[in-house]
Write a structure and sequence with these properties.
Four copies of one chain form a homotetramer. Chain A is an alpha+beta fold. Chain A has 17 helices and 24 strands. In chain A, helix 5 packs across helix 6. The N terminus of chain A is likely disordered.
Chain lengths: 459, 459, 459, 459
């Protein structure tokens, strides 16, 4: 009956980009979102402001499918924010594509949100009781209603009021008629960086967006910081109570692009180091090391370098894959994997193989890849995972399935090894992971590996 | 600066259709809207309910452009409401296409509205002050927020609460999870009829929608009546204070389809009678009577019958016209008229002509048609209008321009005759009009002809 | 097995337009085709030439659906020809949309054809034997292969060579790199008129295309004439053996637009006169005369004028109908007719009615309309047809069904009256028809009424 | 003036797939083409035959953009052929998308062609003289006209007749009403392999198409072989005069997918070996080896293994790129490269780098990548190319530019090194390349490296 629940629909992965004071604001936002496409492939939107009016264009699909010269030209103005979004499902999804644009007391405000609120359900219940109508099934809309209810005068004050009531992960970009306001939650779950391009200010989820357009990265927006960009310049506020920092370690392991600097570290280098540490913790006697492409490549290179076992691209990834794919009725074995990944018999045949991947979630895809490797002649298959076992879901913006679907939540290493049908299985230890990060555990959220959730969702 | 004003954006012409308890609810709603297409050609939507879930499909364009087998099939359930809409403009129009579908306290409610609220601006201001966010620029959304704010238990009570606060014209269809609720304002500005089709209940703006599907018209929904259709049957309430009846006389003159019965009268017959009365009031010495097709045809037939002057289709209308039309840069004289209307030289040449139209709004189109007639050889042109001079805008759901744009608001008959360049000009008198209606004036709203507005818009 | 036969696929109704020497050639061709839309609603194409290159754009659907600013802009040059087409069916229809554009000996040639060849089957067989590949299933392609095979030097000579071998009906427009060549078969079956617009030459199937753009009609292109328009001016040739003239009388009765002048006569006036003659031949005692709209309107006006029985628009036509229409599974009686035509009960009830139509082909639609009239209360229905009984198919470009499907080929008047379920039935006599035309029979092809085919199709 | 020339339009890269005797012929062809997508991304088509009728569907774009359930369902039958195509440009490209489907003597024949004819211009001239009309600008159509002109009885004989007249590269699939006929030119320029899937026969350009659907590769179709697949079984003919074998070595170097077996060798392994040989011939003192992804990866792995210099993915490729991309007006330096490739500063900074690519064509892209590497901090850049300098165009089906555009046709190694702005440059020698192939030179066409063209194009 209830179509709105924190456990399913609200789960979102996203990327955001904003720019203030550039004559080609929309075009550059489009480029920034293109660079952030890996953070969300299901929907994309841009809102611009031209000094008189906000313009909005959005659609379902990839950035280059949704945007073209015609709708980019309609996005007039030298200020803009944009959003790419991955969402699980829902038949009415276009509504949920961000940025949201609403009229609050005769002023328009746009909002793009990366993250996930943990007290959305209870806030929604309270708002509904007092007569609020919800038009989306996204938790982001709650923030807007809270802003509308604040009795403060300026948007920055009203946003502060609203955000004091919400809990969870949020890297937010607001676009009013005067200001581009950027806020990051006090834990700093999701990344958010500030840059500069020929006098204009830019903000993005990852630095790779800056690279593409030749913008310079200035600094991270800090956990708990509100940055207000206007014609008067850049103002920084810290209006919230301080908490401990909880960067999402999954950004380093899997989610961010390898060419980005996230939480001050280059992602590719982190992954190579995870692979080296993995080789130290779980050596293997093997002929070759192969990655599950593309995300497993850096860790496999690290494993190969540390172990001295030669690296080979033993599986070829087909990048032409589109949204939907017609499978013949007459079932093809392991079709879902083969449509993306094809092993090379001549590389694998008769070999003992280390296969490096960055994570095992349900285990079903890994099992199919292992079957393929065997089918193509692999003698031995040793799986090495460049992260600890994933035992819990994420409530802060990574789209992991529920606990019961996570293979490592109910099976131990040996059972998983058996399930996958491999000759050996090794996970990077949490200690090894954090040692590579050379950080105290307290700086990172590792809840999906150790069940220590900094905030729990409220029903 | 203000993007929301009662004088422009809110002006809407619309048609509504609803059905309760038929296995092909969406398909029949589609047919009903097709029959009501003349009431709004810019956007169309249908919401259905299948016992578990509401489904919504909408788009910009004509009924047969927006709907096809695929999206009609998605509209599951045996209850549905639909809406066709004409709106002036706006870049974000899809949002405004109805029915609106919102979640109020965890229950979904859909709304389709024909009419126009006159206290929308002041209600909106009050709602905004208390933190309401508006997602559309349509006055219809106000009704939904008022419903959400009501503390009553059932939707019918909450709707009653809400409608007690609004003023203006409204023929409304609500679709909740249990009921199809139909309400007409106490003045009865817009039509709304109730019918029956093989045990299912149907409601529509005009009876022609019933004809197409073979439904039987039972009766008008009365001014101030709320009809609640549910599995328990049909319940009629009169929860509002009674006012005088003010049917929109323009429905008879121009807006409704000639094959409909509106306010108890067949529209075609009324128009023929207007034409006869016009011939009595403003005879002419002429060779032929021609209509401005299609809407002027019945009155021209009446004029011909009363006067004995032969009727001819002296102007041919091209019905293939689409939404946009590319005009060559090298301007073609009177192109905007010629793309729709082509006179026949052989019929007009050397003749003295009575041209009958149903109204003159700005006068610019009429002037161009007259120029065309002369260019095709007409010796004399006598314009006869089957309605009184339109001197004021409509605030109740007919899309007339502002007062200053209405030619008859600032020019007298002789000046208009001169502007049009015609040999004589005659308007049907208000008295003649009402005599044909054989009704007391008080039953009809004739504000656009006599400035006696039953309710004035509030800022 | 055989997918190509003169009896089915080749049957085509079409309209053509051409222009030479105007900076907006494509835009004006688009307008011309829009005005000729009634001659073919299934496909449309334009070829332009810009002094260096031919450009082609075509598609299935109406002129304003297929063409928009973008593809019109691609049609560069100041010379163009276009074609609208009605074709019965076929899954590969886009190929058959004209103009055809081919490369003959390294020169491009475009061709638009209105009409139908009667020796297509035998010519095709001969060409195939010598190694010709056919890419379309249209008889028009045969003309191009014959041109390619001619050993003459210029296109006008090669076209002459080719056309000497074909038989049947053809009004043709060719666009080479230098010339716009217009040819009409020696019988003059289909119309083709020459006009002038600000120094540019224009050609069209009907004069209404000229009216829209303000072009002046100069004259008909004569039966058997070849008009060559180039930068050197207009040249007229008569390269073919003369035959008797055989104008298609169905253009006057039904096919052409009423505002066109066809074969030197205004179509509307002819139809009014047919109606008057019909009233003389088949009077009726009735209360009102109503047309089957839109094509029956002029004849009904004529019938009313001659008989003195009042004219009424007793049936309203819905012009919003699109290509496809979803019919509810739960069958609606006479749905196919009701979707287009709705009678007005108040006009018909208790009345004795003369219903005027321009032709009865299969009789099935007429039967349904009669049923509707009775259902809406008509006391008596007298059908009057403003043409003689259609007893044979057309081989010259009108899409009539095969002989066995024509109701009048196997039933006499009384049997048809019985089939339709009407109180009386009267057809205009062939003598009456020709008397109105005030022409010798020999000037018109009346084969579909009297079986005297001037050329018979060859297998 | 001349819009048809062997030097521009005819140049094509393609892939073909065919299947005979499988209930899901079209679906599997779709999968096969998806696996061959790298051979042509601009257009795709499938023709199927259902025992009664051929069906054709084609479009511009990627396989998964053009095909969907609806049009695949229309491709009925258990026999089909398909084609992916890369073509340079042309406004009328849809026409050129293959398979071509034509009617020859009342029998339908479909053709898909990978390769390039070298005597197309002269054949076309001869055919045109005798009255042949060309509907495409593709050389493939010539083959069909030659077949139509043959006086032999069966399609296999007529195809043999036709192919005796053409010269150049062709791997062809024909689909008649009875047979799937596969032919490869006598040189064997392009690959073509025969396989088996659950009793059905399959043919494809590369074995990777078989892998995806679980088909077994049986053997190569041999140079000069015609394989006729029908319900009677598989028949092999060798109807042509034998010539020397001339496999295209560029398939191994760049064009084929690394997971395919082409000319009997696995492509990935060949490329790794090329990289090893390259390291022997052109060692470098460097900190890391990086590939230009994706095609340079295997050779870079080989170079790293042979040289012992660590392999790193120093450049990240963005795979989301679509057909068109909007570049901001305010030019971004090296935008065209950056939209696809982003270097990682942390990997490159202060390092001496070996960058491995598989070929340098014009040199402009390589130059931009080198600039990017320097901008991201590379201390030294040593470019190593896993093929000899490309000094001549390909006339046999690889889309290389004209000789004058090939940087190595006019510049020597040192000049290119200077142009690229690199610290050193090394190409794999032709001897080294052939030694890796462990083949006599005579088995491979290496014309683009040594100017020894086995057949020259005829004007």
């Amino acid at each position: 009956m209830k179509s709105w629940s924190v456990n399913s629909k609200l789960k979102e992965e996203c990327g955001v980009f904003g720019i203030f004071g550039h004559p080609e604001a929309a075009n550059l936002t489009y480029l920034g979102l293109y660079a952030l496409q890996h953070r969300g492939q299901e929907g994309v939107g841009i809102v611009s402001y031209d000094g008189k009016k906000h313009h909005i264009e959005k659609g379902l699909g990839l950035v280059h499918d949704v945007f073209h010269e015609e709708n980019l030209n309609r996005l007039k103005g030298n200020t803009a924010i944009g959003h790419v979004r991955y969402s699980t499902q829902g038949d009415d999804v276009l509504k949920n594509v961000q940025p949201l644009l609403v009229n609050i007391g005769n002023q328009w405000l746009a909002l793009a949100h990366n993250g996930n609120l943990t007290n959305a359900v209870s806030l929604k219940r309270i708002l509904e009781k007092s007569g609020t109508i919800f038009q989306t099934t996204s938790d982001t809309e709650i923030i807007l209603h809270l802003i509308a209810r604040s009795q403060k005068d300026t948007f920055s004050e009203r946003i502060t009021d609203a955000l004091k009531e919400v809990e969870g992960a949020f890297s937010l970009l607001f676009l009013s008629q005067k200001e581009l306001i950027c806020v990051r939650d006090t834990y700093g779950f999701r990344p958010l960086v500030l840059g500069e391009l020929k006098g204009a200010s830019v903000v993005a989820s990852e630095t790779t967006a800056f690279d593409l357009m030749g913008a310079k990265c200035i600094r991270e927006i800090e956990p708990g910081e509100m940055v207000i960009i206007s014609e008067k310049g850049i103002k920084s506020l810290k209006p919230f109570l301080k908490t401990k920092t909880q960067h999402c370690i999954f950004e380093h392991i899997y989610f961010a692009r390898p060419d980005s600097v996230v939480f001050g570290k280059n992602v590719y280098e982190m992954r190579v180091s995870f692979g080296k540490q993995l080789a130290k913790e779980h050596p293997a006697k093997a002929d070759i090391v192969i990655p599950v492409p593309d995300s497993g490549v850096p860790a496999a290179i690290g494993y190969s370098q540390e172990s001295g076992i030669p690296f080979q691209m033993g599986i070829i990834r087909n990048h032409y894959i589109g949204r939907t794919f017609i499978e013949p009725e007459q079932a093809i074995r392991n079709f879902g994997v083969k449509i993306k990944l094809n092993p090379i018999r001549e590389v694998l045949e008769g070999k003992s193989i280390v296969m490096v991947d960055d994570s095992i979630i349900r285990g079903t895809t890994s099992k199919k890849i292992v079957q393929l490797l065997r089918q193509y002649g692999a003698k031995e298959v040793h799986v090495r995972v460049s992260a600890p076992p994933t035992i819990g879901p994420c409530f802060y913006g990574i789209d992991t399935p529920t606990k019961s679907e996570l293979i490592a939540s109910s099976k131990d290493r040996q059972e998983i090894q058996h399930f996958l049908g491999v000759d050996s299985l090794g996970y990077l230890s949490l200690e090894g992971l954090l040692q590579v990060e050379k950080n105290e555990r307290s700086l990172f959220c590792t809840a999906c590996f150790d069940d220590r959730y900094p905030i729990l969702p409220k029903d």
